[in-house]
Amino acid sequence: MLLQEGFEVVSSDASDKMLKYALKERWNRRKEAAFDKWIIEEANWLNLYDDIKHVVGEGFDAVICLGNSFAHMMDSFGDQREQKQAIKNFEKCLKPGGILLIDHRNYDNILETGSTPSKSLYYNSPHTSEIKTSVLFYCGKPALTIMDYIIAAGNLRSEFRLSYYPHMFEGFKSILKGIFGEKTKHDIFGDFKSLKEIPTPAFYIHLIQKQK
Q1: Residue 184: which H helix or E strand, with range?
Q2: Nearest Cα to Cα of residue 61 among 111, 120, 16, 2
Q3: 21 membership: H or E segment, kind and range
Q4: Angstrom distance (rounded) from CA 75 to CA 165
Q5: Cα–Cα distances in Å, from 207 out to 12, 66, 201?
Q6: CA–CA separation, 173 and 207 (whole Å)
Q7: Could you give the CA distance from residue 48 to residue 93 in angstroms, rounded to a whole number?
């Protein structure tokens, strides 16, 4: 969608499978100028800047990490050091004044209610009938959220499981401020609307600017 809107795009992923999807799409649409110039790189969030610094130049206007993607990175050491390192790399890839657009599910509400909405901004398939949710605690703190998706289409039924790190709203906001600075511009939306309109969203979307 960004390419179709005329943006110059650099995409990165650590998954060979996902890279193959992107490369195939670029090849299939190579006659379109925007897709022919689409840069696709293999990169790991922990080494992101070093992996792609040859295309970063003076920095990107925006770094985008949406779809609850960031929650796939677990907290291996119990102090979120790797998650903080990844966000530092996002910030390092931005030009002064550039923005990071990043989101996470409303894990506060998931922990409070014990359930995950089966319909939301990103996951709105008519075939998703239920999401069974479990939370693992370690030393009294939520450390892992497990979601079992139940997919039903006619007489067909299937299940798949995804595991996420449960980013709490205040904790995630604090990490962003700690890396970007307390005085930086930081807007937060609920399902891409004002939090006044949706006080209990399915997703929180953070838009934070690198200081000029």
Answers
A1: none
A2: 2
A3: helix 16-28
A4: 7
A5: 20, 11, 16
A6: 11
A7: 8
Contact 188, 172 (CB under 8 A): no
107, 76 contact by CB (below 8 A): no
Residue 56: both structure tokens together: 């970063």
170-198 pLDDT tens trace: 999 999 999 999 999 999 999 999 999 99
Query: What's the pLDDT tens digit per position in 69-109?
Result: 999 999 999 999 999 999 999 999 999 999 999 999 999 99
CA-to-CA separations, 128 to 148, 156, 192, 201, in angstroms, rounded: 11, 12, 22, 19
What is the residue-wise DSSP string for 88-156?
HHHHHTEEEEEEEEEEEE-HHHHHHHS---SS-SS---TTEEEEEEEEEEETTEEEEEEEEEEEEETTE
Distance CA 16, CA 20 (A): 6
CA gap 160, 128 in Å, rounded: 11
Contact partners, residue 96, CB within 8 Å, separation at least 6: 59, 210, 211, 212
Gap between the Cα atoms of 206 and 173, Å rounded: 8
Q: What is the SS3 assignment for 178? A: helix
SS3 195: coil
> Residue 87 corresponds to which tokens in the numbers above?
């966000």
